Amino acid sequence: MSLLLEIKKLKRTGFFPAFLIGAILVACFPIINTAVRPENFINQNLPALDILMNANWQMIAMLNMFFLVIGSCIIYHTEFADHAMQKMEALPQSIGKLFINKTLILIGSIIFALIIEAASFIFCAYYWFNTDNSFLPDILKYFGYEFILLIPAALLIMIIASLCQNMWISLGIGVIGVFIATMLPTDNLILSFFPFAMPFQTLNNAIDNSWISPFLISSGIQTILFSIIEVCILKVRRNIA
Amino acid sequence: MNLLSLINIEFKKIKRSHIIWIIIIPIVILWIPAIINSNMNFEMQAEGISPENNFFIQSFIGLAWFMYPATLVISTVLLNQTERSNKGILKMLSLPVSPTLLCIAKFIVLLLLAAVQMVFMIIIYYPSAAIASQMNDYQLMISPLIILKETGLIYLSSIPMAAFFWMIATCIRTPVFSVGIGLASIVPSVLVMNTKLWYVYPMCYPFYMITALQGEMAANFDTFTIKLIPWIPIAIIITIICLIISCLFFGKAERR
Q1: What is the pTM assigned to this prediction?
Q2: Does B78 touch chain A (CB under 8 A)?
Q3: Domain range summary for chain B, segments of one domain joined by +
């Protein structure tokens, strides 16, 4: 019931059309990139998915991070804009549940974006590359892995958005986070654990360096850690306010 | 009220906005890895670029390609949301102040915030270069003339981009779209820059300026030539069109 309520609140903010249009534009990118210069990609001696990932993932990951940052800002901006948050706090409803519902919406939207992006990869693979039967299970694995790496970033950005009443501050912190992530070297394992940098990692890079389990474990630990932090924030805020 | 006092008022409004931290923190973050990895500058000599030039240019590229345009987008959000929360814009529009002047004043504040970031970039460059020189026993500081000239070029070339972002922010009232379009338009600037028609895309101007300088400094890199003739007129036209549109649409929804 309250999840539906949260979805209704976002109806007039343009959140869902923005995600839809954004995801479609992002999905166009690998197709255009391959269509403009197919000779650069087709002759590489690699599986089709690896070529597509190497060529496009950095940009797609960055746009995905922008989705998360802008999405979280909007989701909490609807509460803070006209002091709706105070009304929500006065209702017989837990604020923790509010956070969970809002996070679920953000994560659901990013799954949706990932599905559209995966569809464009499938299109590219079948149109320009020779693919075998292992392609479809592989793409599920690749995007599932990316999704798991995106969860800590989504949680962290939601915590930031829930703490800052002014949208430009949460937006600013999020953008600075993405900026740091783009500056970090991708070949350094410890630095890549930075929550905003993890979505920039690809599964083929992880296989080459046997980094799969470190990243999955780190994603799990960070998810638990951020959940604990959010619980603490809720407890402290209740005691203060 | 004249333009100057309007700008003064705009600055009073954003006094407690903490925007200054959003502007300064990325600059500090930008220089820390540059200092730590400063010994890597010596490996770049194979490309024909001297260590001191490389030290300077890498950080300025980092700023110009992403963080600086993103700061402009964040500042447009700040300028719009301070008015829209608590309906401040209605009060401003009921005063005997020309909305056009108000719009121009806000745009100038946007440009001044961008100037603050550029000034901080120069200020922090000097201690960073000094520390890195100490660490490597090599003079990594370059002539202030080049730095001033390049920062000035980045700043001036970013004005059409700022006008574009300001137009988006005033015309599109749903923040998710205005911010989304702003941030998303930064990303493809790398691709547009490599095409012949780079001058029709204002978001890539600052990045183009700094890459052109890199091409000059490094013997082995592709050189990007700055041809003034189609670029300057088109940039001016884009700026004027964007400003006129934003002045026309400023406060339109509230004045209904």
Answers
A1: 0.90
A2: yes
A3: 31-36+49-255
